[in-house]
Write a structure and sequence with these properties.
CATH architecture of the largest domain: 3-Layer(aba) Sandwich
Strand content: 15-25%
Number of strands: 30
CATH class of the largest domain: Alpha Beta
Helix content: 25-40%
Bound molecules: 5'-O-[(S)-ethoxy(hydroxy)phosphoryl]adenosine
Largest sheet: 8 strands, mixed
CATH superfamily of the largest domain: ANL, N-terminal domain
Strand order of the largest sheet: 12-11-8-6-7-14-15-23
Structural class: alpha/beta
Distance between the termini: 21 Å
Number of domains: 2
Shape: globular
Radius of gyration: 24 Å
Number of helices: 21
Length: 680
């Protein structure tokens, strides 16, 4: 992250007090109560988490121990000996608590007139049917099911059906293309894949099943594919024996749909979700049923002050962790009404969000800074014509929010009175870790404020975006969590070494983010210190993109780094050394760009591809990415000491090449297209 951006983030010194109105009926009514909860949670964690688990979750059998910790191996088991089922907690128990006919899920399709609403009873019936159907495909407890689906109700229904059986679901973002999907299906060894004929995005049809077919040739574990008819595509190629239409399969289970919930051990895996790590291989983060569900419900209740009659909308795609925790599991565990939207914020007009808020009287809106930035560029008339008075709480996640976006959200959407909860967390943490409590925390735009009760966050060492070197006088350090919490991942699938790497450096959980704490104890997240790039709030791995580039026959070497981007937060900048004799050309640049896009997905498309003669390297031959980042970020004056370079002469040429490339930015080949910018 460039120094300039950090400075912008830190310069808004105004703070905003929590609202008085509504405070007395809040779950946490003020700073004193928050302080007291923090004190109690750290003093006696078992008592604190045990009490939350009893209040929020229905257990078939109570735990023997709240936490069994093996500090030497960084293994933490929550609620050992307990039994529960996530599907039961998200559906069945609400049927007998007076919520049977309450809306559990409201779905707004990309087409304005496509709306579906499921009451808790209807959701129950659907989930049971799908559980029967999966069971007829011989899916049992512990089996893996991959979900490559757009934002349609069948996705949540499939997740809950897996949870009901005890099967482990792995959602794959529907914007991923071939390589991204293949590595994730192979990475979880899925036996069944559920998909759709196509996704509908910005009025365009994006085939999913047809994408999947060639991928499956390299995924021998997959025995069945279930296809939802979503876009009404004709001529979908269905392979005999392997492929079934969702509706045909479900037809067999219209009578007597009850499907009993599998009693799961608290430490049985609920789901696997891949995130980007420091290698080309995605990290299969595993979450345990008991700890994860408790933490999802706990943070949903406190961070959004969720009340029983709230209509709640988390705009994140369920292919990411936010959609899991705050789209599905958290709100439904609390018996709330959750909204799901198939489309994008700006199509056909940039008023989709505000229409949905008005139509369904949304009370809580949780979205990403990148969405806010894309909407604030539009004419104010797009927000002004809608009645947004139902809103009570706003939230953001995924990346630091710049004060300009914060203020726009606060003024135009929040009418200068609604709290904005800026929640910092990660796939690995399961739920929010550092976040305001709406009626208790004073807000400072750009800061995720303070750790939630029970979360022992700290800054260790000295770190910036540029790696691990201690910069003199730097206040920023590595953001770590010193004690276990129930939402923490239980492991990395088939990669113990990777799991241990989160703990090896500091002896406690290291987030991979750099952060700073101010004199009020407020945390300011500065960005990743590892090789992840955060594009529109989505985590991508530089290594994964480099691997795709390096596999092209024209490419000798590739290095990918983040660059600041006004809309997406960060963009992707690739440096490429071509093989001998391969000339640099615009057509090669287009080819490389399309290769990345086809292989990983539109959101991984590089903003710039710069051809270079040689990478800056150490004498031992290691590429010095820190310098490449500075150049990509237009901060070459900050490159600093170059004495470690084996080839200092390469640097000047790279800087000159960068300047030329940026000056020629309007070359059409590099213009970001609609599909990329709609991957939010
Ligand atoms: C970044 C998404 C600043 C951070 C839930 C983290 C944030 C990565 C914030 C995790 C925030 C997330 N402020 N940065 N409020 N929230 N991040 O795993 O760099 O997709 O490490 O989880 O997003 O991304 P992931």
């Amino acid at each position: 992250m460039s120094q300039e951006r950090i400075t912008t983030l830190l310069t808004d010194s105004r703070s905003y007090l929590p609202p008085e109105h509504g405070r007395t009926s809040a779950w946490i009514c003020g700073p004193e109560e928050y302080d007291e909860l923090c004190r109690r949670a750290l003093e006696d964690p078992s008592d604190f988490w045990g009490a939350r688990a009893s209040q929020l979750i229905h257990w078939f059998k109570r735990w023997d121990k709240v936490l069994e910790a093996d500090d030497a191996h960084h293994k933490y088991k929550w609620f050992t000996g307990a039994k529960l089922n996530a599907s039961f907690n998200c559906i069945d128990r609400h049927l007998i608590s007076g919520r049977r006919n309450k809306a559990a899920l409201i779905w707004q399709g990309e087409k304005e007139t496509d709306v579906r609403c499921y009451t808790y009873q209807m959701l129950y019936t659907e989930v049971c049917r799908v559980a029967h159907a999966l069971s007829s495909l011989h899916i049992r407890k512990g089996d893996h099911v991959a979900l490559y689906m757009p934002m349609i109700p069948e996705l949540f229904i499939a997740m809950l059906a897996c949870a009901r059986i005890g099967a482990i679901h792995t959602a794959i973002f529907s914007g991923y293309a071939e390589g991204g999907v293949r590595s994730r299906i192979q990475g979880c060894r899925a036996r069944v894949v559920i998909t759709a004929d196509a996704a509908v995005r910005s009025g365009k049809i994006k085939p999913l099943k047809a994408n999947l077919d060639p991928i499956l040739e390299k995924c021998p574990s997959v025995g069945h594919v279930v296809v939802v008819r979503n876009a009404g595509l004709e001529n979908v190629n269905m392979q005999r024996k392997r492929d079934t239409w969702w509706h045909d399969l479900m037809d067999d289970f219209t009578l007597n749909p009850d499907f009993p919930c599998e009693p799961m051990d608290a430490n049985d895996t609920l789901f696997l979700l891949h995130t980007s790590g420091s290698t080309g291989k995605p990290t299969g983060v595993m979450h345990a049923t008991g700890g994860y569900l408790t933490y999802a419900a706990h943070t949903t209740q406190w961070c959004f002050d969720m009340r029983d009659d709230d209509v709640y909308w988390c705009t994140a795609d369920a292919g990411w962790i936010t959609g899991h925790t705050y789209g599905l599991y958290g709100p439904l565990a609390l018996g709330a009404t959750t909204i799901m939207f198939e489309g994008v914020p700006t199509w056909p007009y940039p008023d989709r969000y505000w229409r949905i808020v008005e139509n369904f009287r949304v009370n809580i809106l949780y979205t990403a800074p990148t969405v806010i930035r894309s909407l604030m560029r539009m004419n104010e008339a797009w927000t002004e014509r809608y009645d947004l008075r139902s809103l009570r709480i706003l939230g953001t996640v995924g990346e630091p929010i710049n004060p300009e976006a914060w203020r726009w959200f606060y003024e135009h959407i929040g009418n200068e009175e609604l709290p904005i909860v800026d929640t910092w967390w990660q796939t690995e943490t399961g739920g929010a870790m550092i976040a305001p409590i709406p009626y208790a925390t004073k807000l400072k735009p750009g800061s995720a404020t303070k750790p939630l009760p029970g979360i022992d966050a700290a800054i260790i060492g000295s770190a910036g975006r540029d790696g691990d070197e201690a910069e003199e006088g730097a206040k920023a350090g590595h953001l770590v969590i010193r004690r276990p919490w129930p939402g923490m991942m239980q492991g990395v699938y088939c990669d113990e070494e990777k799991y241990q790497s989160y703990f090896s450096r500091f002896g406690c959980y290291s987030s991979g983010d750099a952060a700073e704490v101010d004199s009020d104890g407020y945390f300011w997240i500065l960005g990743r210190v590892d090789d992840s790039i955060n594009v529109s709030g989505h985590r991508l791995s530089t290594a994964e993109i480099e691997a795709v580039l390096a596999a092209c026959p024209e490419v000798g070497e590739a290095a990918v780094v983040p660059m600041p981007h006004a809309l997406k937060g960060e963009g992707i900048y690739a440096y490429v050394v071509t093989r001998d004799e391969v000339p640099w050309s615009s057509s090669l640049r287009v080819k490389l760009r399309d290769t990345v896009r086809r292989d990983i997905g539109a959101l991984a498309t590089p903003e710039y591809i710069q051809f270079v003669e040689a990478m800056p390297k150490t004498t031992s031959g290691k590429v010095i990415r820190r310098m490449l980042r500075k150049i990509a970020g237009d901060s070459h004056e900050e490159i600093g000491d170059t004495t470690s370079l084996a080839n200092p002469e390469a640097l000047a040429a790279i800087i000159a090449g960068h300047n030329n490339l940026v000056a020629g930015r309007h070359e059409t080949e590099n213009a970001p297209d609609e599909e990329e910018s709609s991957t939010i």
